[in-house]
Amino acid sequence: MDRLTPEERSELMSKIRSKDTKPELIVRKHLHALGFRYRLHPKKLPGHPDICLPKYNTVVFVHGCFWHRHEGCKIATTPKSNVEFWETKFRRNVERDLRVREQLQQLGWRVIVIWECELKTRLPSLPDEIRDSS
Fold first, then answer.
1. Could you tell me the domains of the chain?
2. In the chain, which end has fewer C-beta atoms inside a 10 angstrom radius, N or C?
């Protein structure tokens, strides 16, 4: 059972951002400090990637483990109430992520996905991953 009333839950969920999340800002700040220049959420690309590095023909998605269902991650839990709704929502998110990734790759873009739980371990190697794509 949910500890919050439907109104409280709705208010809480409305505060969740889709852009400029803390993990995304951490990645952007790190890349900028290393001299990388990028575009944010380009509307002309499928899925509007979080970060687009045209010089390297690379896009970066910074995925939240909960919303994008990072397999095996302790953050990717399923709420106990309204389970059918959540399972449908999560399944559609994962399907969309896969479809967008395939579309970008078909357009010749290299796609890098960073999960929020991997930030500390992935950030040091991210510049190499980007440069290796060119």
1. 18-132 (3.40.960.10)
2. N
Please enumerate, as own/partner, the contacts of 46-55 that have beta carbons within 8 Å and a separation of 24 or more: 46/100, 46/103, 46/104, 46/107, 47/96, 47/97, 47/100, 47/101, 47/103, 47/104, 49/104, 49/111, 50/19, 50/24, 51/24, 51/27, 53/130, 55/134
The predicted pLDDT at position 29 comes to: 94
Tens digit of each residue's pLDDT (9 = 90 or more) over 63-73: 989 889 999 88
Mean pLDDT of 85-105: 95
Q: In what order do the strands lie in the sheet with 39-40?
A: 39-40, 51-53, 58-63, 110-115
Alpha carbon distance 68, 65 (integer Å): 5
Task: Give me the mean pLDDT over the 32-41 stretch.
Answer: 95
The pTM (predicted TM-score) of the whole model is 0.84
Determine the length of the chain: 134
